[in-house]
Amino acid sequence: MERMSLLGYAVCGIGLESDALPFDVGGIDRDAMPAGLRRRASEATQLAFSAAARACREAARSPAALPSVFASVGGEMQVTDQLCIELAKPEGLVSPTAFHNSVHNTAAGYWTIVHGCPEPATALAAGHDTFALGLLEAWCQLSCNGGELLVVCYDERWPGYLAPPLGRVAVASAMVLAAGDVPEALAHLGKPCPIGASGNRAEFSNLLETAPAAWALPLLQSAALGEAGPVALSGNGWVGDLLLATSAAA
User: Fold this and answer.
1) How far apart are CA 24 and CA 18, in angstroms?
2) What pTM was estimated for this model as a whole?
């Protein structure tokens, strides 16, 4: 496989300055999940659902038909932090619901359950390289299996005392990708590779330090503006070649 095709995408965020971006950035979509789940879902899961649902709509694809990759640096950080606080108390009482929702694949699991999706769902974390490795996982699956796939990269806001400056902005991006060249593609992306430094837009530098999930923004901005070429996917040298679709180039 020489490239992946971008069929649709979405970005959602809280505290994200987005006026200069060439695409809309949404907030939490309350209709993206059932009310009963929404009441107990974390900010991370709600953001992931919001971006994923919108990306599927933009691509005109059913969530039930897509394998998925959910990539997050911290996953359910707020829930996990609260569990640790409770466990440190003398009584050490833990909410079963909170414990159930503390696992890293919470968003991925709920996504498949809500949409009745029988396709595999992968949850991964790779620190500051999380977005790049999420795309690499997508590349590997599409290269081996073909077809189409949903990639979601997200992180919520973290308690201020944890790993500053991380966790100051909540952001989620989602992309529906297909193997090879697809006629209706918005753009194409080559295999993510750790080939060294690549030019990155200065306007994203502060954001990327606090929210590694935001590494999707330079890529999606380049695609929206029709700017082909190498695009940085992390701060550690991961790069992907962005190619314009025929319609975009025209």
Assistant:
1) 8
2) 0.92
